[in-house]
Amino acid sequence: xxxxxxxxxxxxxxxxxxxxxxxxxxxxxxxxxxxxxxxxxxxxxxxxxxxxxxxxxxxxxxxxxxxxxxxxxxxxxxxxxxxxxxxxxxxxxxxxxxxxxxxxxxxxxxxxxxxxxxxxxxxxxxxxxxxxxxxxxxxxxxxxxxxxxxxxxxxxxxxxxxxxxxxxxxxxxxxxxxxxxxxxxxxxxxxxxxxxxxxxxxxxxxxxxxxxxxxxxxxxxxxxxxxxxxxxxxxxxxxxxxxxxxxxxxxxxxxxxxxxxxxxxxxxxxxxxxxxxxxxxxxxxxxxxxxxxxxxxxxxxxxxxxxxxxxxxxxxxxxxxxxxxxxxxxxxxxxxxxxxxxxxxxxxxxxxxxxxxxxxxxxxxxxxxxxxxxxxxxxxxxxxxxxxxxxxxxxxxxxxxxxxxxxxxxxxxxxxxxxxxxxxxxxxxxxxxxxxxxxxxxxxxxxxxxxxxxxxxxxxxxxxxxxxxxxxxxxxxxxxxxxxxxxxxxxxxxxxxxxxxxxxxxxxxxxxxxxxxxxxxxxxxxxxxxxxxxxxxxxxxxxxxxxxxxxxxxxxxxxxxxxxxxxxxxxxxxxxxxxxxxxxxxxxxxxxxxxxxxxxxxxxxxxxxxxxxxxxxxxxxxxxxxxxxxxxxxxxxxxxxxxxxxxxxxxxxxxxxxxxxxxxxxxxxxxxxxxxxxxxxx
Length: 682
Known about the structure:
Elements: H1 14-31, H2 42-65, H3 70-99, H4 105-116, H5 120-127, H6 145-167, H7 177-200, H8 211-217, H9 219-234, H10 243-263, H11 276-289, H12 297-302, H13 305-331, H14 338-345, H15 347-363, H16 370-396, H17 401-409, H18 414-417, E1 435-436, E2 443-449, H19 451-454, H20 457-467, E3 469-475, E4 485-488, E5 491-492, H21 494-509, E6 514-518, H22 521-526, E7 530-533, H23 544-564, E8 568-572, H24 589-594, H25 596-599, E9 602-604, H26 605-626, E10 629-631, H27 634-637, E11 642-644, E12 646-647, E13 650-651, E14 653-655, E15 658-659, H28 661-665, H29 668-681
Parallel strand pairs: 2-3, 2-6, 6-8, 8-10
Antiparallel strand pairs: 1-3, 4-5, 4-7, 9-11, 12-13, 14-15
Helix pairs in contact: 1-2, 1-13, 2-6, 2-9, 2-11, 3-4, 3-13, 3-15, 3-16, 4-5, 4-16, 5-6, 6-7, 7-8, 7-9, 8-9, 9-11, 10-11, 13-14, 13-15, 20-29, 23-26
């Protein structure tokens, strides 16, 4: 991502280019969906490389001239980085009108504008609503520009800081310049790393909202990674004890980077302390490669001509690969081969961009600064204009009939739209819009659970209204409504337990006629990001079979508690899920308007039921033990042999695990019949 070292000021090192090649391959293989679950650490390798490369150039200038020519430095950076970035921003935003995911066009325009202004990382933190690893973020073709903005922020501030630190030598004559700067950089690294570790480990607010997302995207929490590269550059004259030590050091660097790449995943608490392995590994490789004398074999691996050539293309390939993957997924949703194919195909625009624009402009030496200033201005203004044009186009798209129908599938369910999906438990909600009453109600129904309960709000309301029943809705997304304690990505979900305990107490204090409960039990049991424990919290269970046993027992206790109040209970089993990652809004504008049936992914009913089985059987065990009513929506939602997002001219799913409003309404007759049975039983 950082540019090649300026050969006029420092010696060109093939190992640095080779390490760039390794870094970009890690990221692209990860984004392509291939089995390299921690490939995202390639970005951390880039950060260390950037710190070293820029410091080598600046220190060389300081030692030769005694000062840093900031105008010349920023001119080189502008030529190196901005034209290629501006080209990608403009082309991708204009192409998004046809090829972009319909649900992400507004976000694409915002992130593209922010990338042009060097603040994409902060835009993604402040307005992105999702972390880097969340599925919703993967619709944004500019998600990857966060790291480019972070590097550019480093380039904006570091030269001045280095120059000031270097000049302090006059007042501290007892210290060498490099030693003084190293000491100051070490202090900055220590503060930055501590901040990163604390925020990454935080469960709640710590200085900022969403500290873990802030830690991932922000310059203060990532500065220590650049700082490692700075320290290596400032210590380049330090020699190792001998060839075996150098070989061991370089091999250790390889192993640290490889270990992180192959063992980390989206569930890893990152960056924090986990970022030490890839960053330190990169620093060891760079430090070893900077020594004089014979090159140890682990360093010679980096000097391989293929890796060096990939390193030359690393900036362009990094820029182009992610938009190509996002467009491919939008055009061909649900096809597993698409990310890999598009990652490979993205080499074509990357090479063309490098050969026709990036390399020629980098070598361009105009006689004055004015042409470069004009180029810089154009590289900012043109993307901003493209972002405005995309936003205008996005606002006009719903006037197209096919798009309007598709947008309808993305409607929020009433529990979300009216603020009923929150951590506030039943009985503690000031919002009366979560209570739907009727004149002279014959009884009261409570719909409770996670978002898997929330997407049944509309059919429950329709059925209840026809029977003269009042309905109260209390949902809390991603929180199981069963007597278990949950952990997500290593963080205990204390608000979930408070919601469960207080809601259960309210059901006992004011029993309704019928409680309709639903949770995505299959997700909590199957997905590795969730761990479950019993009331004692002695052991966190992560294996699906152990979690299934906990779920069955916890749900049984919940159902018995509700039944003791005299309320009848209806447990609604999870719906069959589509392919992970699909959602209404993830299809390309072109697909929606020309062939919606291709955008509407389908899945074998048998496959979906097999995937759901472990949660379904755990719920069945609990409901049979307590004798409560149950409802399985599978046959209604997936008639025949398949589950399809698009069927009979309508969108049935909102995303892979939730129904659209129209799809959910198809269940209203089933809910009505079961409500009548429940009232009759009671």
